[in-house]
Amino acid sequence: MSIGIIGAGQLGRMMALAGYPLGLRFTFLDKSKDTPGAQVGDIVLGDFMQAEDIRRLAGEVELLTYDVENVPVQALREAAGDTPVHPAPAILEAAQDRLDEKQAFARHGIETAPYRPVDSKEALETAIEALGMPAVLKRRRLGYDGRGQHFIRAAADIETAWEALKGAPLILEGFVDFDREVSLIGVRNRSGETAFYPLSENSHEDGILRLSVAPAGQPALQSEAETQLKALMEDHGYAGILTVEYFEKDGRLIANEMAPRVHNSGHWTIEGAATSQFENHLRGILDLPLGSTRPRGHAAMINCLGRMPALEPVIRFADTHYHDYGKSPRPRRKLGHITVVRDDRASLDAVITELMPLIKAAEGGE
Amino acid sequence: MSIGIIGAGQLGRMMALAGYPLGLRFTFLDKSKDTPGAQVGDIVLGDFMQAEDIRRLAGEVELLTYDVENVPVQALREAAGDTPVHPAPAILEAAQDRLDEKQAFARHGIETAPYRPVDSKEALETAIEALGMPAVLKRRRLGYDGRGQHFIRAAADIETAWEALKGAPLILEGFVDFDREVSLIGVRNRSGETAFYPLSENSHEDGILRLSVAPAGQPALQSEAETQLKALMEDHGYAGILTVEYFEKDGRLIANEMAPRVHNSGHWTIEGAATSQFENHLRGILDLPLGSTRPRGHAAMINCLGRMPALEPVIRFADTHYHDYGKSPRPRRKLGHITVVRDDRASLDAVITELMPLIKAAEGGE
Lengths: 366, 366
Known about the structure:
With 366 residues, chain A is α+β, with helices and mostly antiparallel strands.
């Protein structure tokens, strides 16, 4: 079975590494042979924003999936032709637009921050009046890792935020003074079987994920999040991994975003769960029985940004796993991650405390 | 860091899949692009029996290792030039010749079956008188998976065995009526750190490994085997994985063979141990700290011979992992393996009982 992956980043790379043992073959679509995916699989050189190039990939494989969220949905629909695409373009479309995404959450009674679409400075001012401050003005489309957002704390920020972001469709979101951020990663196969990983607790720095720790949820919270994610997946006849990022506030879950793909906050599942999110994504899109999502003890994933730490001091820690995506260093770029697995949370926390400064020191070295 | 692997079989493939997360790149030397290794890495097309071709590979990488045992040692030494080769050619040489191998065991006081070198029919007859029957006549070099061997149960078999094997250097080994077969897989890095996996119990069918189950040894047996393997590794300044296959008879360990490489009886470590034999081989040859060899519960590995079972019925069993090497079907050929991991031995045995017929049915289907 040959699978085409649109985008040859680290998500596609880890998908291929998980899929080879299943006897699958992988071809990526991206601009360079030196991308994380193309280093471990075949490549069709091209631009995944172009229907023409997606069409060339589709012609070489039996099934399409993607490792990037900004694939143009219309082009994808046209270009795929008879080649099935999973997760389905419809949900990708909803996830690409913060307004559509909020409306999808609302349809399933999933709480979100209050929001208003914004298409003019006047609309922004009205929205601020309605939602109050602080609030966050965001591009509806193509924002990630904190880009395309402006914080509005006081009236003076309105002008700055508007000038920075105007020209694109925007949304104002009420600021949630959350206690913590968590994410739920679930998987569904085409026949409707579902499975869910334990909630992961996520810590961001400057808008970029730094640390995920799992399991991180009380049973009631886990169960509430699973019910929500299951409804989202069933509504869309979803196949593959679907992730919802939440704010947790006073024990309530407030949905922030969804991602119709494997997710950075689930990388710990490679070593920390019986079946990784990457293998389960493949099982889902291929309509195979799903693998156990049972955690193996307690796991943490630390992102390596800008520059990788040296291998040796990291893997000196027992049960510590180094993941280098094969990318060249660049400030704040996600180059890899480190996973730690321990039987108990206390010893996991102790390792994180030792590892984190080592990882940050490497990043600051340039 | 770029690593050259001589031979692009399944062992090299699994080594590459384990090494990509460490940021390593892999180039194989083999005859076809459709080999298990070349499907997941780069390939230098050539013949690993030819010094010229090994030289081309050495020119492209920083470190050489191998996934086949029959690399011609003299060619390897010459061709490697300044490129380090691990495990060192000296131990490969000893492992390629059953007589040298027995003598290496003897130097460390490791018990083997009684044996006699055989270079004529008269020598065979004298050896039979000394060792008695049953005995096994074997080629000293290039035998594996039961090939190049003849069983001698009665005087009438002597002529047949001699006619079948004459012309190559031979060895007669006393037959060990063993209780079971076990193997110990150990690893050493270039600085001298060592680690050992739990003993695995191995069952063969028609001379080919069918099933390995681990952990399988009483502490005293484990400790005895570790002492022996450690001595072998230190004697040779060894780096990488070294495997010794034993017969166990009345609680005694009788060494049968050694393999200076990752080993089929250690494939269960991919999911069944904290660090796989493939990652630890790489850590050893790169002189990195070794990873924990701690087992995750009880694991079994079943080889798939001749034809792979379908994916779906196999992965329906929880914690069951499918490994397809990407090879084309051929009777008795090792095409893949299935690993099962369970918390307790009884439930592991129950799954083996269900899975084995399913795997054999697939093989018999052609």
